[in-house]
Amino acid sequence: MRKPKIVVLGAGYGGLMTVTRLQKQLGNNDADIVLVNKNDYHYETTWLHEASAGTLSPDQVRYDIANVVARSKVDFVKDTALKVDTEAKTIQLEKGNELSYDYLVIALGGAPETFGIKGLDKYAFSITNVDTARQIREHIEYQFATYQIDQKPERLTIVVGGAGFTGIEFLGELGNRIPELCKEYDIEKDMVKVVCVEAAPTALPGFDPELVEYATALLERKNVEFRIGTAIKEATPEGIVVAKGEDDTEEIKASTVVWAAGVRGNPIIVESGIENMRGRVKVEPDLRAPGLSDVFVIGDCSLVINEEINRPYPPTAQIAMQQGEFVANNLVSLINGKTPVNAFVYDNKGTVCSLGDDDAIGVVFGKKVTGTKASFMKKMIDNRALYMIGGVSLTMKKGKFNLLK
Amino acid sequence: MRKPKIVVLGAGYGGLMTVTRLQKQLGNNDADIVLVNKNDYHYETTWLHEASAGTLSPDQVRYDIANVVARSKVDFVKDTALKVDTEAKTIQLEKGNELSYDYLVIALGGAPETFGIKGLDKYAFSITNVDTARQIREHIEYQFATYQIDQKPERLTIVVGGAGFTGIEFLGELGNRIPELCKEYDIEKDMVKVVCVEAAPTALPGFDPELVEYATALLERKNVEFRIGTAIKEATPEGIVVAKGEDDTEEIKASTVVWAAGVRGNPIIVESGIENMRGRVKVEPDLRAPGLSDVFVIGDCSLVINEEINRPYPPTAQIAMQQGEFVANNLVSLINGKTPVNAFVYDNKGTVCSLGDDDAIGVVFGKKVTGTKASFMKKMIDNRALYMIGGVSLTMKKGKFNLLK
Known about the structure:
The structure is a homodimer of 405-residue chains.
Chain A: E1 5-9, H1 13-25, E2 32-37, E3 41-43, H2 48-53, E4 62-64, E5 74-78, E6 81-85, E7 90-93, E8 98-100, E9 103-106, E10 111-112, H3 120-123, E11 125-126, H4 130-150, E12 157-161, H5 165-184, E13 193-198, H6 209-221, E14 224-228, E15 232-236, E16 239-244, E17 248-253, E18 256-259, E19 263-264, H7 267-271, E20 281-282, E21 295-297, E22 302-303, E23 305-306, E24 311-312, H8 317-335, E25 350-354, E26 360-364, E27 367-370, H9 371-398
Parallel strand pairs in A: 1-2, 1-9, 2-5, 9-21, 11-18, 12-13, 12-18, 13-14, 20-22
Antiparallel strand pairs in A: 3-4, 6-7, 7-8, 10-19, 15-16, 16-17, 23-24, 25-26, 26-27
Helix pairs in contact in A: 1-8, 1-9
């Protein structure tokens, strides 16, 4: 009898959770497991804002996939998946090979969503992966270095587009990083301008207003200027143009524009003709793609509705990991001829948004937290993700242990 | 009786040597000493190639002037000298003040000489000061970071214009730095291209051919490609255009072009109408400017002929420091009514050209040295400059003590 072949696309939170749970529960004779990923490392998407600001080394943000995946049980393919043929049950890879599957788990993560705003794709950076994070860090440093040569004030202006989770966390890190940069490059702190532009009527939509107030007040003390309820009309080589009043616009000159406002699904979803909304698949209760009994979609490419408010859960590491575990368990059931679980239920343990290295806000197990306590919890959450996928040794190696300040 | 006023422009090797020797020998009632410098720090010009490559922190390359100048004896003015009126005996400063002098020591250092090559001033970097060094370092890092985004091979090409002293030392540091950068940015070493273009028929003109051969062979092993006897015709936003054969040209695409081929005098010399050749003053034997009995010119702005070969001594820290000491002693004699020494005699103790952190070539006290021994001597020379100006404590703080590898 032929062994079923499970292909997992993506070694993010969801993909690695799936693979590590599969390799634990399946023997070599039960199934062939294949993991496809562009890089031979996993990176912590939720830490990229730190690498982008320059407060954490990019190397600390990633680890080798070989550290957590058992090569004896899993074939690792370093390649980029371009398109899935859901009828032929094959995946087209960039380097020219085709890969067949019996079960497919799409865990490829998202892509920046620019909502068609002109120039954003060209002139704004995006906190997307290790490569873009390093580029943002180096771009900002280069601007500070060059300011001493040409004295252009816009070199010291950083615009952050979006006051959502990523935007706020990035601003928090900038608050720590900018004083260091000023020292390094002999720049007066007052010369640096950080502007956060958010089209929505509030920062951190969905968060408790009291916590939002705490976060914005803290960031304002760190010299962040908020432009809430202000839409970016265009990004240009000189900066951005924002809406002002009914018909007017205003230019904000800035050498650095970081777009941190939206995530859509991976392009492969659209490319493969799978039913989607902005590249995300509104999955069945058991996380299968509609009409495709052998394709599971998890993480940023999936869309799970929070019935309480009838809106999708935001794409987070937490939900991706729970989905990965759910799909792995169901695949094991299917292979062992048992009945899989009908519906994925998200267990929201809470959310903490960091505000730099030493402060944070959040709701954990239903309770509001701020300050050192929240910051401590954030680091515990970061360490937990490492532990869930790579156990104690990985946590010791890459974890955050500057827990109390 | 009015005290004579000595103004020293520039806190480089020559200027600081002058001031520290003056403050040692003159009492508060003997003279007013004023030091004018753009920054409140001194930097080691001879170490800038390290800061530019990123192998040494820019902060390690400089120290506060306050560390070596006695504020009780010397007025420090943080400003930029724009023009000297040698008749009125005044100096125009950038911030609008005018400064008078009885004796003036111009020790302002040089400026890059681009020999009129089109585009060099606009598209090439120059290892000139702490600001430009930091910019070069950050520019190179940004190119490496961005390569992972757009995969343009020219991002990983660095052109060094000039195989003279600075060019070769910079190439040596790049040889150490590039493997680090490749590791940091996940780049294969073979993708990086370093090209050194030199119009003269040899690298390091004036050096012993055996040493030149040692240096170029070593750098070639570190993947430097030499284009000797090749003139740069133009620098462009894309790279450089070099001469090829009689009439032909060739483009070398490179995101980083560092021009390290020429030094001329400080613009203030020309601006002030002092007799000069390429901004450098062919000084009288006692280092006075021709026809100006109260103006001394030392360091890169001065031109002292080496009678043996009837060519000017190259501008080095060594000669600048000896000139500074000579001028300080003569000023003390003048003020004390003694007869100053007639002629400055340069005592060439030797020259060592580093080839990275662990190798060098040179001639010291008439003997050729290479390898670890030469590298050791180079660091001793670097430490000696610190010691001569700032004594033991400065040497301990900023010196190079990784003496043996």
